[in-house]
Each structure stands twice: as structure tokens, then as C-alpha cells.
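Sequence in, structure out.
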Amino acid sequence: MSSVAPRIELTTLGHRIRHFRVRKGFTLDDLGAAVGVAGSQLSLIENGKREPKLTLLQAIATATGASLTDLISDEPPNRRAALEIALERAQQGPSFRALGIPPIKVSKGLTDESIETILGLHEELRRRDREANATPEEARRANTELRRRMRERNNYLPDIESLAEEQLAAAGHASGALTHRTVSIMAERLGFELIYVNDLPRSTRSITDLENGRIYLPPASIPGGHGLRSMALQAMAHRLLGHRPPTSYADFLQQRLEINYFAACCLVPQTAGVAFLEQAKKDRNLAVEDFRDAFGVTHEAAGMRMTNLMTEHLGMRLHFLRVGAEGQIERVYENDGLPLPEDVTGAVEGQIVCRRFSARTAFAQQNRTTEHYQYTDTPAGTIWCATQTGSRDTGEFSITVGVPFDDAKWWRGRETQIRETSTCPDESCCRRPSSDETARWAGRAWPSARVHTHIFSPLPRGEFPGVNDTDVIDFLERHA
């Protein structure tokens, strides 16, 4: 072996050599003369800049009266050395290097207290970097990449499908809608009690107290209570999937996708869900509303669950859209070539969908209790869609599930005579007024924009994106 084993940290090794050299009363030149190398070479070794050969280490150990084991120990030889090593590592880290400022040179005149203060600043810098907040552009890019990966997998995660069915079977769930009682049993098997409280921090949907085995959820009096089952299942999924605090916004999004997927698999189990869809296809009577009612979930949850199962098990490509009343895309999945607007990062969320798509024309329908069916001719071919509208505190929204023309024959509502033509993303389709209209109103109108104040409000800073750490700790203290 010609050099020190790779596991030895050179900075610590250098400090230990210096410690035993000074204890012996040697200068660098004294020790160099004793072991047959120049003092300048030893200086490089002591500063962690050069890796010594094993034969040289043995000679240094003999000259300083130390054992080889003493030299290669991974423990700093004293408190001062520990501080210097910690500072060097901090100044080599990405958080500090990103600042573009020169590192502090450690000298004898730099007191221990000064190093401790500097280390405190470095720790605060690292803490802020660990907070998994992202700029809007970073968030869009991460979400776009995640959507691309899931499209390649047909939005299907077989390992989580299997995990969910195992957990359901262990809790005694056989068929029908998943009950709150069964969800509680699933939590108990993991060592958790579900507790419904009125004072959850505004930035959280649930909080899991790992120490006391509690999952805190919003009040059980929420109308219908459908979301409570999902929130409880999502909290459990973090434990079942072995998640750790996210290290980046992309990591956070991946975890959120996985817990949502697990909850969906529990609410609509794969075996029962596929059997239902296969029978409905055989009957040429596929419908989101029937799938929704069979498993006691929301229309949105049913539509999204179809994207998990239908391509993988029925060979049918499709798309899902949740669109706000102003046409903004809030949630999307497609693997059927539906032409959707994108920004320069490739993100679709937040873009305005074509006015002629069913996702928007459905808002004009007087009968909102049934699905709105429509064919739309697009640059990518004709698509068929079924859309259901709804409302919430922030306004109206629509949920759409659609397929290419050739697959419409399997769906209820295929007989619709409603047909639209869209040339989007060509802006002349519906995003830009005609040149005549533009000329007529040029200089004759002055609209005042509604300021979307939420875009100026920073997310709370915390270890988990968008979560206020102080509120969470205060909550846990109150309930502990």
C-alpha cells in the first residue's frame, strides 16, 4: 500500500500530526530532518493538502513517540483542532461557496470564541438552505419533470398499489367504500391514533406526532368528511414509504405525489377498481360519475384514479384536467397528445386552456348536476371529453376526463352532438382578439387589473415547504 487508506480524513490527520509534533517540541524542520522530508512537505500534510504514504506515517509516529493508531484516529486531538476542522469543512460547503467570498484563514490570533461565532453563522446559512422553499420557476421546473416521468410510467406506481392492498387486507377491508373506521384501524396498526382538532396551523393539512403516536387532522364535522380519509391515509403513507424530511422542492413534490397515490389506492383499490372499469368498458358505459359513486370518493379523485389504471390495465390513453373559472389549469395529466399551453419551462399548471375546450364551455351549461359531453377537433386530432363543474370558496372549477375519438365508443355520452374546433396553442384561436377589434378599441379603453396579492406573499419558511415551523411547534406543545 503506497498511501493512507481512503477512509482517513486528511484534515483530521494533519491536525493529529501537528498535535504530536508540537507535544514533542519539534518544529516542522526538526520533524522533517527526523523522517527525511522537507519541512515544507510536512506543512502540506499538516494542512490536509497532501496525502502521506504509509511508510512516512510510520516514520512520523516513531519520531513523535506516537503510535500509528494515534495518528490515523478520526477524532480531533483537542477542542481547538475540532473548531478549526469544523470551520474548514463549513467553508468548503456549497452554501458558503455560493456566496463567492473568500474563506477566513485560521491563524493563532483567531480566538476559539471567534471561530464559534463564525461557525454559528455558517450553521444558520445551512439551515436556511435546507428549508425546502423554491422560487416559482424552480417549482414549475420540478413539477414539469415529475409530470414527464409519470407520463412515461402511465401514471402508474405498482409498488404503491401492492402496498395499499396489503394494508387494506390487514385492516379487514374487503369491498365497498373505505370507511373512517377502517382508516382508524390502519392507523392503529402503525401505532397511531387519529385525533381531530380545531386549531391546526393554517399552513398544514395534518401533523403527525411521532413521539406520542398521534395524527392530528381537521374537525370531523367537515361536510361529507371525504377529505379526512385521504388526509389520514396521506399522513400514514409518509411512514409506510419511509420518507425523510425533503431535501429539495423536487423531493417534496415526489413525496407529495407518492402519499396522494397511496391514499388513492386505498380509497379505490386496484383489484376492485380495474374490475369495475373492465365491466363498464365491456358494457360500453364508462363514466367518471359511476366510478366516483361506486367507491364513495370525489369526482376529482375518481377522474385522477382513472389515469392510474386505464392505460396500464385497459390500454386506453386519456387526459385529466382541473380548470378554474378563469380558464387556468390547476391540475393536469395527459398521455393522449392533448395540445396544452406551456410556458418556457414546459410547465402547464397556471396556463389558460382553450375557451373551446369542454373544460371551459361546461361553465355555460345551465344543468350542472350532470356531466357535459363534447367532441373537440384539435391540431392533434379529435378528442371526446366529459366535464363536471363544481364550486368552492375560491370560485368555480371544472373536472374533465377525455380520450381520443376512437376510444369514445366505450364511454357514456358518446352520442353527444356538441362539437367545437380549437386551433390552440395558436394564439389566434382564442387568446388574441381579431385585428379589426383591436384597432376599433385602440386607445379607447383602460382596464384596471385585479392584483393577485397571493403572488407577493412569500411561503412560510420551514423545513417542509410552505409550513410555518413555529406554528407547528406551538401546536405540538399545546397538545403534548
